[in-house]
Amino acid sequence: MINIGIIGYGYWGPNLVRNFFAAKDCCVKLVADARTERLQQLGIAFPCISGVRDADNIIYNSDIDAVVIATPVSTHFALARKAIAEGKHVLLEKPMASSVEEAEMLINLAEQKGVLLMVDHTFLYTGAVQKMKQLVEEHELGNIKYLDSTRINLGLFQSDINVLWDLAPHDISILNYIVDERPYSVNATGITHTNNSIENIAYLTINYPSGFIAHFNCSWTSPVKVRMMLIGGDQKMILYNDLEPTEKVKVYDTGYSYSNDEEKKQVLVDYRTGDIHVPKLTTTEALLGMANDFIACVQKKKQPVSSCQLGLDVVRILEASSKSIKHNGREVILEATTVPANHNGHEVLI
Amino acid sequence: MINIGIIGYGYWGPNLVRNFFAAKDCCVKLVADARTERLQQLGIAFPCISGVRDADNIIYNSDIDAVVIATPVSTHFALARKAIAEGKHVLLEKPMASSVEEAEMLINLAEQKGVLLMVDHTFLYTGAVQKMKQLVEEHELGNIKYLDSTRINLGLFQSDINVLWDLAPHDISILNYIVDERPYSVNATGITHTNNSIENIAYLTINYPSGFIAHFNCSWTSPVKVRMMLIGGDQKMILYNDLEPTEKVKVYDTGYSYSNDEEKKQVLVDYRTGDIHVPKLTTTEALLGMANDFIACVQKKKQPVSSCQLGLDVVRILEASSKSIKHNGREVILEATTVPANHNGHEVLI
Amino acid sequence: MINIGIIGYGYWGPNLVRNFFAAKDCCVKLVADARTERLQQLGIAFPCISGVRDADNIIYNSDIDAVVIATPVSTHFALARKAIAEGKHVLLEKPMASSVEEAEMLINLAEQKGVLLMVDHTFLYTGAVQKMKQLVEEHELGNIKYLDSTRINLGLFQSDINVLWDLAPHDISILNYIVDERPYSVNATGITHTNNSIENIAYLTINYPSGFIAHFNCSWTSPVKVRMMLIGGDQKMILYNDLEPTEKVKVYDTGYSYSNDEEKKQVLVDYRTGDIHVPKLTTTEALLGMANDFIACVQKKKQPVSSCQLGLDVVRILEASSKSIKHNGREVILEATTVPANHNGHEVLI
Amino acid sequence: MINIGIIGYGYWGPNLVRNFFAAKDCCVKLVADARTERLQQLGIAFPCISGVRDADNIIYNSDIDAVVIATPVSTHFALARKAIAEGKHVLLEKPMASSVEEAEMLINLAEQKGVLLMVDHTFLYTGAVQKMKQLVEEHELGNIKYLDSTRINLGLFQSDINVLWDLAPHDISILNYIVDERPYSVNATGITHTNNSIENIAYLTINYPSGFIAHFNCSWTSPVKVRMMLIGGDQKMILYNDLEPTEKVKVYDTGYSYSNDEEKKQVLVDYRTGDIHVPKLTTTEALLGMANDFIACVQKKKQPVSSCQLGLDVVRILEASSKSIKHNGREVILEATTVPANHNGHEVLI
Predict the structure, then answer these.
(1) CB pairs under 8 A between A and B
(2) pTM
(3) In this predicted complex, what is the ipTM?
(4) Chain A residues lying within 8 Å of B230, measured CB to CB
(5) Interchain proximity C230–D238, CB inside 8 Å
(6) Domains of chain B by range and CATH?
(7) CA pair distance D288, D298, nearest whole angstrom
(8) Angle D334-D335-D336 from CA coordinates, rounded to 5°
(9) pLDDT digits over D113-141, tens only?
């Protein structure tokens, strides 16, 4: 039985409490939040769980085995460092830290202390993402060529992070989970309409050595909610619409190929459309799957699906996107070693 | 009665013939296409229109008053220059030319010769775009803040122009028609998957002095067809879905505002959702409206809705987008005079 | 403070417990269910509520003011009669009873004992139905002419009642709430595919003196879930799609009118389409609204929105539908007094 | 080469002319319409086809081999009888006649004269219906249990026939084409809101000996256009949405089965949901397929897909539906020999 303390009972906290409450082999002992009204809400919904105002009451409590941190991103590093130092296993909300440096320090510290450090990229535990991962791994799509994601809606403007740091982690974690290749650079553009230097609309392109490309469109100021992703291979393509109640993943037997027309000195492109297949997906709640994975990995000392390395790669891309936006969209190199040979090298930022 | 010759009877040519056939005060006299099989098709569909193999038979024909050019973009300049030199009025398919230089030369020449030069940006004549123009002009949306367009589908890979030159002119023309402000720069990224240096997926951001931003997502390799545009104001927002049979334009009574929280040193953002309004649109065929506008402007010596200046501005953006793609997404300045004062000037290409 | 006991902790029971838990001025004291595993579920979800196996422990408990009955329909009458006889206020799940006779006996008994008898027609408390009621009352639609409802999906075959008794009460209650006119007859057809004389597909038509008509399509064997209702007036029409996350109610400025063409001895019908309006709806949980209405009506001795008279009228239509199905679709008269004068009277069943 | 004359150039006539123009081995020689303005339209669209005002100019013209009749239903019988008597092959628009008696007389006469009599049930030639026919024939759905059709929109009120005679022939022809079993009876209800005894909303149930059931919902007064059909088997089920541009037919791997629970004296029903498959459909224009079938059957003296027997069965159901509406929804027997043994026989009309 793993005893758990949860720090932060804001927007996401109640979902974490409810799912760790329902998970196996663990017990939610304490929840910390500095706001009285949040602790009152906790008391109504979960009368049997104690609320405390100070996170230290969890971190320095010897009964607690694992700490779940669901506070603003800027506080992740300090809270997690303290908890790891105390020998607690730690689950961090996404994104795991404010910078690559912070994330790497936490990973190193967790390794030293022999505790589990995990990031809650919940989407990896959905039936839809599991199915897409399987389809790509089994080479159903052929060679994958692009991923194109739109995640827009109205509202919940954050005051500490921009729209990419807020919304894109979901989609970048899916990208990193499904696509094995490592990207070499990013470009990003964006704009703020709220007079606070925090972009509410932003666009991110991620570049890969093989020619694979990923693009992300994020906005807090769309009148409609869209959560759509395309993943295209040369054999088949996927449309993933997270707002569909059941038909979330559609596999199109659609592809293209090209050949050289020597005579006309042209490339001829052929394309093909066919049947569509909509696989049935498992419907267990993703957050419960994440909670169970955390507990199981603590017990069995193994790495979770949503590992801290994947979480670090998400932060690496986010950090580079901020640098690119600041430099008016210039390409920012992630891994200089994999930049393609024919690349316009002098244009980039490292 | 204006006598018309149409050059090019490929994909779009039959639509032009059919609509100029139905337009007022004009007569389609000749159609030119070098391909025998295309002229045979013409003979079956329009037995009363003569087909010729050589465009010169139209251009140098003294019975012809106006020439419609629906050939590949690379041939526009030479054909149009000859026709204008002969004193013909000219309607060019979009994009009007391969470069800003070409487009400007044609515009100057037409002015000298006192003939009409017009570009067929058909979408400007749709009920949907007319309604959106009206809503923006009447300040229904408040201050407009962004335009976000997705135009993707499978197929019709072009062998001479990339996907932005092929698909984005529709959406850029709508942008230029609806938004009065002039952009100062663009960023673009893209990729080719067909081994011919012609991007089949590309992303374009257009930057404006006021903070307005426009973004375009274009692809020939999507399994699904999407033609969607969002136009957001701070008072209301529009969703324009061109694939909806009747409910193409939805106006969301959705907005946001911000204020400074002096105490917390934060900007507080408030948003609001409300009713949705779906205006009835006129349903006359857009291409017929374009044809009638061309004829009327020839007769009355006035400028059409889809003017050559608007067409030039479309080419200016496309040319800059190609430059940005070539320089790995670096910002390319369109009009140096309007670059915002706080802009990172040394990053850009002029 | 009203003390509440809930009988039946099956499919719907947990929702009732959760909402009465959240409602004002009441306290859920006891929940009864004969099944051990259901009481265990109760213990996990609501540790502070006592579970009992025998409904009599609630009915004869002097601490209990009001009894909520969420058991199979066939048991409603016996349980409610006992509870009313004990002076308890009673909330019955829909449909309120197995027959008009039973329903009327309960209503009479409740009146004698001076207690509230209410039926849980939850949909009446949704923002969508409240908005439609308002639009009809304010004569926005003009004279209403028809209501057409489809409620189909796969699954949850009942073993005691057919698909009309299971699904149609939702839509009939909405009809009765929105439309003031009283129907005079019904026709119904249906089929069983499960060898148990319980129709899994059925169709119901309800006839009104004014020419208004209502039709209901219900099925447990549809591959897709549909919950759609049309309400047509001669001025405007409503499309109510309960599966839309936000745009549930669309008001079409669509109508028709007719005139007599004396010359051709014909009726000329004119129709008109216009804008569409999608009103914003209140989003409070309907079941909580129902629970609060019950408590408020107990306290203030007034009649709820979802009254027992409305519930009785629902049962009256269901009973007649069963009679019509049994007689191969023959018309069954509900109220002989309002049968139109020109009606084929000898065809009907009374 | 078959010479064709087309009688009636109203709503559907231009489509027939265009497709027979494009069909193989035939030539449209003449088109008849009494209205001057319709013949003018013909002249503009098809300058090479002669228009005549009197149908007799076609019927008694010895150059004409085949006559296509696209006039109001009430005129079908007289025109077709004359044409058949003259030895012409005849293609009738749907429904083929105003009564079973008329339809049977035409069929007998055509047989006597050795000419082809065919009915234009265009939908049978669509890729969607062809695919559904194939799926049912190959027993992909298991035993089929029901067909449920909704065909509603606003407008085109007919002044001579009610909404079932106008819209249901499409769906009944699909039913008759796909389902081999013959129905034994129908029930129908409906209402007129236009003061002319012509129902603008009507509902039709068709009953089959095996327990298969078909239901049709037709309206001219819906604010939205719906063309949806469900076909349910015990193994799989089809959703056919004719308004979808490409994904018209979806096959759900969804079924149910039942068993007897001896102990509880209950039938237990089990259901199952699975993947969805969207087959690619052929996209040739249905009307062209119909025209080619007509010409080929004339030449090869064989029966077309859309045969006059199928057309007669459609009229048989329509005639019975009118009788049922007139008798307030009472069941009307089509074939007394196949009424199930346990049927409430005395309720019905023969």
Answers:
(1) 184
(2) 0.94
(3) 0.94
(4) 152, 222-224
(5) no
(6) 2-120 (3.40.50.720), 124-285+315-338 (3.30.360.10)
(7) 15
(8) 115
(9) 999 999 999 999 999 999 999 999 999 99
